Every structure is written in C-alpha cells, then in structure tokens.
From TrEMBL:
It comes from Roseiarcus fermentans. GO terms for molecular function: DNA binding. InterPro entries: CheY-like_superfamily (IPR011006), Sig_transdc_resp-reg_C-effctor (IPR016032), Sig_transdc_resp-reg_receiver (IPR001789), Tscrpt_reg_LuxR_C (IPR000792), WH-like_DNA-bd_sf (IPR036388). It holds the Pfam family GerE. This is LuxR family two component transcriptional regulator. Keywords: DNA-binding, Phosphoprotein, Transcription, Transcription regulation, Two-component regulatory system.
Length: 216
C-alpha cells in the first residue's frame, strides 16, 4: 500500500526532519514527487490513499506531508480533519488544480501550511517542502506571526478590506462588487498590498496570514 525509502539519519530528538509523506492516488504523480524529493535529499514515504497514510503514520512522527486535494474515499480536506482529530501535527502542503483557491483557503483553515497549484515545477516543490520542514523543526510560527502583524499595520483600511477578500479566495470582480468599487480599483489596491507585503504571488500572501486575523 505504501513504500518506504530511508535516506537520512534522524536528528538528536529522534525525529527524521527530512522525511516527507506523499499522499496521492495517482501512481505517476507519486512516482514523480518521490523522485524529485529523493534527488533533493529527502527521505520519502508514499501512500496511495489518505486511509493508508493514517493507518501507518505515528502521531508524534517528524517531517511533513504533501497531499493531493481530490482523491477518492478521502479528500485532502478530509485528511486534514482526520489529522486534527488524531493529533497528527505534521505541517501539510496540499496540491490543488489551477484556480482552486477557495479549496486551498479551506485547507489552510484546517491547518495546511502551504498549497501548490498544478502545474508546478520542482523548484517550487522543494522550496515549499523546505519551508514546511523548517516550520516543523524550528517552530517558526511565532516569528512569522509577528512579522505579518507588523506588515498588516502598514495597510490602509480599504487595503485590509481587499486583503480579506483575497484571503477568502475571491476574484477581483467579486471583491469589487462586495465593496462597491470598480474592479480596476481593487486591482490597484491588490498591487499595493503585494508591494507592501513583499509578496510575489497570492500563494505567498496567503502563507503570511495563516495565523493572523485581519478583521478590524
């Protein structure tokens, strides 16, 4: 049901912080992810379903998880809910189809630390995994939260309104309608937000505000 590939020595705390759990029902995607991660130096375990992962993983195991969003039997969202219920505290990256930002938002509300939109290249994958493992290893949430709060304070009230819509996965025209402004105005605010936050894309912006409430 799953394969084990051991490639690293656990750190002194007994956890293998280079370990990546890959959960995907597609054989080809599992193989491609395993190859890319192995070449990057990670130990990899692959699972063909969410139940297979849940039955094999130990509650206090180290590493991180990459899971597809759409799978039969249990979806990525179902997996996140089950991990929460079973106190499996592994940072999780979800893979979504292009344009599924609302699903990514739901996943992050359930505890996912990042998302990747298909198609993505290996460099983006490896960077996301490195960030997730660093979070698991160093406990960087508090530091990231303080930084995001400081950046949030630089936004105007209207920019915060637009940001709230973006973090809900809404398109510019939907945000414009809700705020009673033009789409061009929202686009302008969005550009200012990205510049002030030093975010290269929406994915980076969403990661910054995982744990920071933005409502006034």
């Amino acid at each position: 049901m799953f394969q084990l590939i051991w490639m690293d020595t656990p750190l002194p705390d007994g956890k293998d912080h280079s370990l990546v759990h890959v959960v995907d029902d597609d054989n080809g995607i599992r193989a491609a992810l395993r190859l890319a991660l192995t070449i990057a130096g990670h130990a990899v375990r692959v699972y063909d379903s969410a139940p297979a992962f849940l039955s094999a993983v130990e509650p206090h195991e180290g590493g991180c998880v990459i899971t597809d969003m759409r799978m039969p039997e249990m979806s990525g969202l179902d997996l996140l809910e089950a991990m929460n219920a079973q106190a499996i505290r592994l940072p999780t990256i979800v893979i979504t189809a292009y344009g599924e930002i609302p699903l990514a938002v739901e996943a992050m509300k359930l505890g996912a630390v990042d998302f990747l939109e298909k198609p993505f290249d290996n460099a983006v994958l490896i960077e996301a995994v490195s960030q997730a493992l660093r979070r698991e290893r160093d406990g960087v949430r508090e530091e990231e939260t303080r930084r995001s709060q400081a950046l949030l304070a630089t936004l105007t009230a209207r920019e915060r309104d637009v940001l709230a819509g973006l973090l809900k996965g809404h398109q510019n025209k939907v945000i414009a309608h809700a705020l009673g402004v033009s789409t061009r105005t929202v686009e302008s605010h969005r550009a200012h937000i990205m510049d002030k936050m030093n975010a290269g894309n929406l994915r980076e912006l969403m990661r910054m505000f995982l744990f920071v409430p933005i409502d006034p």
